[in-house]
Amino acid sequence: MKITAEEFDKKFEAGEDVFPYLDLNSVYHPNKVKRINVDIPAWMVKSLDREAVRLGVTRQSVVKFWLAERLGSAA
Question: Would you list the domain boundaries of the chain?
Answer without folding.
Answer: 5-74
